[in-house]
Amino acid sequence: MTIPPEAPLRHIIHADMDAFFASVEQRDRPELRGRPVLVGGSPKGRGVVAAASYESRAFGCRSAMPMRTAVRLCPHAEVVRPRFSRYREVSAQIMAIFRDVSPLVEPLSVDEAFIDISHRVAQGSRPAELAQWVRERVAAETELTVSCGVATSKSVAKIASDQHKPDGLTVVPPGTEADFLAPLPISDLWGVGPKTAARLREAGIKTIGDLAERPVPWLMDRFGSRGEAFSQLARGLDDRGVSTERQTKSISSETTFAEDIGAAATLRNVVGQQSSAVAKRLGEQGYRARTVQLKFRLADFTTFTRQRTLSVTTTDAAVIERTALSLLDEQLLPSRRFRLLGVGVSGLEQQPEAHQLSMFDDSGSSNVEPPMSAARRERQRAVDDAVRELNERFGDIVQFGTLANATDGDPP
């Protein structure tokens, strides 16, 4: 019997910018340097913190916290409105540096990415030196700091990058993954959210090492198929490769209201505008959608979604609106008031390269547009992915629609 050779060892850097939005603001505005900075919405409304500088974190401020809470913790903090176009501009510069060390870069958001350096290590480079080169290049060219984790898998590298922030470098040598993970809190494991962490702690599992010791059948009995994945990750086993292509899985438009709304007519009008925005982006990106979703957030912060799958795919705003309105009507109750509403589509299928957005605009004039180039469509998709990721992380701080308020040399 022939024994297949072992798969070559991967070497991956997870690079994570330190307090990215706040750091960009402090760099661009020297008067903010050394001062506590909170980037996000107004503390007078329902703004949330998109980024907190390390000076403000010393007072307990953190991302995704209501801005009014953060200001109460740190009254002397400077509140700065986000400049997302600026952050995307700086992000593009940083991602270009990452690609100088390896073409295999997988952005997770505007401020973090995986970099597969396996081929460089096979050629004789040392992982720690490559990561240090990345950190020095970022500092020299952007005046910002980045923390890096280096490991043989994506999950371990991501955890490692968070161990010595800010401006840190943590290397997990091959074969030491389980020992590195064992003492860390269970909440550090990729995929373990607050609710899952609470369930694990109730079962006596407080550290990643505790989880690694539990039998897989026991975990699967409580967490289904995720139980086996948790067991693998807790032992440092993760064979996922770095992907340079990010496929758009959904497109959405959401509105957070300045005041809770219960009026059906107002909510239906919002759904109509959001449906048009979603349909427009479907056409621009060359997709058709099969499933329509409606996201709700009630006045008490209860958040849920409802969806309906269509018999055929569509890009038609009227079809999306009609389906979304039927979902909305099912949730309208006299006592309900909404603080957020969002229309989304999923089950996306790529359209042929050549497509027409609209033969006529509202005025009746000709409005035939050429098909979007592949490069432009990819740039648009990257922006949409980044915006969606920001909304998921920081509570819908980016809105689509109108209702919401010198190179130092080659790497070693």
Question: What features would you describe in this structure?
Answer:
The chain is α+β, with helices and mostly antiparallel strands. Among the domains are: 20-83, MutS, DNA mismatch repair protein, domain I (3-Layer(aba) Sandwich), CATH 3.40.1170.60; 178-234, 5' to 3' exonuclease, C-terminal subdomain (DNA polymerase, domain 1), CATH 1.10.150.20; 250-394, 2-Layer Sandwich (Dna Ligase, domain 1), CATH 3.30.1490.100. Helix content is 40%, strand content 20%. It contains 15 helices and 13 strands. A five-stranded mixed beta sheet has the order 5-6-1-7-8. Strands 9, 10, 11, 12 and 13 form a five-stranded antiparallel beta sheet that branches. Strand 10 and strand 11 form a beta hairpin. The longest helix has 22 residues, at 264-285. Mean pLDDT is 84; it is low at 1-5, 353-380 and 391-408.
Shape: globular
Widest sheet: strand ordering: 5-6-1-7-8
Helix percent band? 25-40%
CATH H-level homologous superfamily name of the domain at 250-394: DNA polymerase, Y-family, little finger domain
pLDDT averaged residue by residue:
84
Assembly state: single chain
CATH architecture of the domain at 250-394: 2-Layer Sandwich
Q: Specify the number of helices.
A: 15
Distance between the termini: 41 Å
Count of strand segments? 13
The major β-sheet equals: 5 strands, mixed
At the fold tier of CATH, the topology name of the domain at 250-394 is Dna Ligase, domain 1
Strand content: 15-25%
SS-based class: alpha+beta
